[in-house]
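Is zinc ion placement plausible here? Inputs below.
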Amino acid sequence: MVKADVADFICPGCQARYKLVRAKSAARSRDLPLHCKVCKQPLAASDGEDILKYFLIRRPKATRLQARPL
Ligand SMILES: [Zn+2]
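Reply from A.M.:
I modeled the complex. Tokens:
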């Protein structure tokens, strides 16, 4: 039975928003290094036996301005 969990993930480097999908690694998967598509921050590619996938859903508005969440 395939089980997948989805969570929100915000890049600590640039505040870009990702959907973080955690899935069981079916076959043997290579641990490819993942990086933020926006700021190249290294992201964890796996967690234990689970593999992590990131789907960019929102880029930070302006990288030169400091993000100030209300
Ligand atoms: Zn980033």
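Short version: The chain has a mean pLDDT of 84.
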